[in-house]
Amino acid sequence: MKITFFGHASLGIEVSGKNIIVDPFISANPKASHINLNSLKADYILLTHAHQDHTLDVELLMEHNPNAIIVCNAEMATYYLDKKFKCHMMNHGGSWKFDFGKLKYVNAVHSSSFADGTYGGNPGGFVIEGEHKNIYIAGDTALTMDMKLIAMRTKLDLAILPIGDNFTMDVDDAIIASDFVDCDKVLGYHYDTFGYIEINHDEAKKKFFDASKDLMLLEIGESITI
Fold first, then answer.
1. Predicted local distance difference test score (pLDDT) of residue 197
2. CB-based contacts of 169: which residues, under 8 Å, 6+ apart?
3. Residue 16: count of CB within 10 angstroms of its CB
4. Could you give the C-alpha distances from 8 to 22, 52, 93, 172, in angstroms and in order?
5. For 193-224, what is each residue's pLDDT tens digit?
6. Hey, which bits of the chain come out as E strands?
7. Per the confidence metrics, is the pTM higher than 0.90?
8. What pLDDT is attached to residue 210?
9. Contact status, residue 112 vs residue 142, Cβ threshold 8 Å
10. What is the DSSP letter of 181?
11. I need a surface site. Which of 8, 103, 171, 203 has the fewest CB within 10 A?
């Protein structure tokens, strides 16, 4: 499983020969100006919630990947079905076996609405079980006790957690979250994009190190393989 960081909360995941894009917000992110959005391949587009900094480039991606399937909650799926896009709707606690692996939609504590004010349903996160590796994509969320439920069902190899504070968890809460999901290998995201969520990288890594955990902060466009 290969995971590429496209900046903010945007990810590319290659698993079982399929290409997944998570929460595409690239074209309006000056830090990601070197990413060629038009060249990105997508068999699936996973959306954690409707905020513009997670959905901005959905329609552009669909122009270049017309057979891609958008996977999101029911309210967001209805929004995109009205635009004649292919969707697979999910809701909290539900899972589905796709050709790339098993996907479960899990709880997140945040808000959710489209830029035009349309209600975006309840926000969520995803657990992907594929290629003998399991990852948790938390989405935008506060620290929540519900994260403990994930470890009761799935042994994670990687937790992808927001660490920018102000709108989501901060670094200290992310350390607790990694305890809750029983995963000491963490990829941080949702940080540095704009002033409200800028972090001190060295300090964040040290806090994780002191907690006997590994925090990865990738450069935009950088990938890891698990």
1. 98
2. 138, 141, 142, 143, 161, 162, 163, 177
3. 12
4. 11, 12, 26, 19
5. 999 999 999 999 999 999 999 999 999 999 99
6. 2-5, 11-15, 18-22, 44-46, 69-73, 86-90, 95-98, 101-107, 124-130, 133-137, 158-162, 185-189, 214-216, 223-225
7. yes
8. 98
9. no
10. T
11. 203
Integer angstrom CA distances of residue 44 from 18, 40, 135, 189: 8, 11, 16, 20
The whole-number pLDDT of residue 70 equals 99
Which DSSP state fits 169? -
Instruction: Using DSSP, state whether 35 is helix, strand or coil.
Output: coil
At position 12, the amino acid (one-letter code) is: G
pLDDT of residue 58: 98
Q: What order of strands is seen across the sheet that includes strand 133-137? A: 95-98, 101-107, 124-130, 133-137, 158-162, 185-189, 214-216
